[in-house]
Amino acid sequence: MSGLESYVNNTVSIITADGRNFVGTLKGFDQTVNIILDESHERVYSMTAGIEQVVLGLHIIRGDNVAIIGQLDESVDSKLDFSSIRGMPLEPVVH
């Protein structure tokens, strides 16, 4: 878990086991990897429309639903035109 400490106060992208994608500032986490994001939004992917960004603000994600956490390169991310990007939503992880 010490690897997550370097992400605190940085922008991260989190993919959950149910296929959702959240982006926000990592404010904290606990021993079960429950995540606290600030200034967060969910990116909703579609094959017919651009990526919708649903503003959430302060958001908590349960640790047992976290699949992947990665630091986001804000300089690259800010240049993306989300209205023109198409993509299939991720399927939930099957246990």
TrEMBL record:
Plays a role in pre-mRNA splicing as component of the U4/U6-U5 tri-snRNP complex that is involved in spliceosome assembly, and as component of the precatalytic spliceosome (spliceosome B complex). The heptameric LSM2-8 complex binds specifically to the 3'-terminal U-tract of U6 snRNA. Belongs to the snRNP Sm proteins family. The keyword RNA-binding applies. Residues 1-75 form the Sm domain. Keywords: Acetylation, mRNA processing, mRNA splicing, Nucleus, Ribonucleoprotein, RNA-binding, Spliceosome. GO terms for molecular function: mRNA binding. It is found in: Nucleus. InterPro entries: Lsm8, LSM_dom_sf, PTHR15588, Sm, Sm_dom_euk/arc. The keyword Ribonucleoprotein applies. GO terms for cellular component: precatalytic spliceosome; U4/U6 x U5 tri-snRNP complex; U6 snRNP. LSm subunits form a heteromer with a doughnut shape. GO terms for biological process: mRNA splicing, via spliceosome. This is U6 snRNA-associated Sm-like protein LSm8.
